[in-house]
Every structure is written in C-alpha cells, then in structure tokens.
Design goal:
6 helices; Leucine-rich repeat, LRR (right-handed beta-alpha superhelix); rod-shaped; alpha/beta; 2 domains
C-alpha cells in the first residue's frame, strides 16, 4: 500500500465515521464524543433507516467488517510506521504530510541498498548528488541515472570525499548521463579499487583531485575524455591505464603525478608517443604500451 493510499483511506474512514455520527444525531440521539464502539448501541436507539444502513454497509466494506475505530487506528499506525521507515532510511521527513510520502518513498527506493548514503539537491533540469554521514561499512556504489524522473547530471565537489563519519567505498559506477564531476569527488577513498566509467560518457574532463589517494591500480578512460586535470589520480598506485588519443594531462608534480605514483614516466611515454590511444602498463619500473 502506498503512502498516498494509506492517507486517503484514513481520510475516507474518518469521513464515514463523521457522516454516521451526523446521521445518528439527526434522529435526536446524542453521540457527542462517544468512541465508535458505542455507535452500534446509539443506532439501536433510533429506527433503522436506509441512510444509516447505507453508511453502516460502507463502514463494513471499508473496514472488512471490523470496527471502524480499529481500522482507523490500524491505518494511522501504518502510515506512522511508513514515516518512521522512510526516516530510518536517511530521507528527511521534516514537515512532510502523508500525501507527500510517495515522492519520499521514491528516494528510499534509490537509496535502499545504501541506507543514508545519498542526499540530493534538486533543480529544474539537473540533480546534484552528494554523500553524507553514514554508519554503513565499505560499499559498492552505483550512482543512479535519475531520481524521481530527474536526471543526475552532476557529482558535487567532495561528493564522496572520505572523512570521519563518511562511508568508505570499494567500487563505484558512474552512469553515462553524468556531465560534470566535481573536484575531489572521491578524494581519500583508500579502499576504492574499482571505478567503472562508461565508454560513451558525457563528461570530457577528469576533475582536479577526482580520485586522489584512492587505491586504483588500473583505470579505463572513456573515449570522451580529452582532459585530465591536476592531481586527478595523485598517489593512486596505477599500473595499467587505458586512454584515448590526444588527451591533455595537467602535471605539475615531479615523482608523484596527476597519473598516480608512477605517473610521471607514463606521461613522458604517452606524450613522447604522440599521445596515441591504447593501454599502457607498468612493470619492473618501466611503462610499456601493450595495446
């Protein structure tokens, strides 16, 4: 049962109860604040009429024959539990009415595998996604392509930056719809060993410090990438790099470069080979173009 359905049922049951009270009192019988389980006795105080019978039938239909107050209590308890469950999944429910629960449930569906991992800034044309505090352990993260029908086009600066209280990541998949990756998006994720980037990615630039100090031993660049900015893979132990042709690599450090611990020599080889596309591997202290 969706939250909206729960809310509508509560309102319908309450309306039926109020209508029945009004009808009983229209025959001169005082109902006042009497609980619903006293209504049957109130009904017996007046002649049975078609209108009252119709309302009683409606109550029985809605409540499955149970007392309406029990049904209302049960349904109200259900939507209270729904709100608690959504909140426990890391979705902010402050000020949200039951009629708005459906949209929040959609957030839970996206983040169900990673409770309290994703938080969103929603705009008209794009959704900016970033990470926030979580007690979860190391995760394999699949960033969604859309949330509630809105495309996820950006990863925020420091989106999954590893800091105290934030989850660590083993692997991440970035969908091809993402057009912008903020600086230092995954900085410090020292357990991150696998990054899956789509071949037909929409972004052209690996941002500054994007994967700085991660545990990546290899990376397969999308063919769309034309620029790798300063510190993108700083301190990563990269020993296998697949890259397109003509990529501009910013490199200002000597010894520990934009392309990882052994990257300075890689950049020398790549540039010296006319920036040829291919796979480059590091072994025995030397980089070689192997494919």
């Amino acid at each position: 049962m969706t939250a909206t359905t729960v809310y509508e049922k509560i309102e319908k049951l309450k309306t039926i109860k109020d209508d029945l009270k009004t009808n009983i009192e229209s025959y001169g019988v005082t109902v006042g604040t009497a609980p619903f389980d006293e209504y049957p006795a109130k009904v017996l105080e007046i002649p049975t009429t078609d209108s009252v019978k119709t309302l009683i039938d409606a109550v029985n239909e809605e409540s499955g024959g149970a007392a309406i107050q029990d049904s209302i209590d049960l349904v109200e308890s259900n939507y209270t539990d729904i709100k608690a469950a959504i909140t426990a999944a890391g979705v902010d429910m402050t000020g949200v009415k039951p009629s708005g629960y459906d949209a929040k449930i959609a957030d839970v569906a996206v983040a169900a595998k990673y409770p309290a991992l994703f938080r969103f800034y929603e705009g008209r044309q794009a959704l900016l996604i970033y990470c926030y505090n979580s007690s979860e352990g190391s995760l394999d993260v699949v960033i969604p392509a859309s949330i509630r029908g809105v495309d996820v086009l950006q990863l925020d600066t420091y989106a999954f930056y590893s800091a105290e209280g934030l989850p660590t990541i083993n692997s991440v998949y970035i969908p091809n719809i993402v057009t912008t990756m903020g600086a230092n998006a995954f900085t410090g994720q020292t357990t991150l060993t696998s990054v899956r980037l789509p071949i037909n990615a929409s972004f052209t630039t690996i941002s500054p410090g994007a994967f700085q100090s991660c545990a990546l031993a290899e990376i397969d660049m999308p063919v769309s990438v034309t620029t790798i900015l300063q510190y993108a893979f700083l301190s990563c132990p990269l020993i296998k790099i697949t890259i397109g042709s003509g990529v501009t690599i910013s490199n200002t450090d000597v010894g520990n470069s934009t392309m990882g611990t052994y990257g300075a020599d890689f950049i020398t080889l790549y540039n010296g080979n006319g920036k040829l596309a291919g796979t480059y591997e590091y072994a025995g202290g030397t980089w070689t173009k192997t494919a």
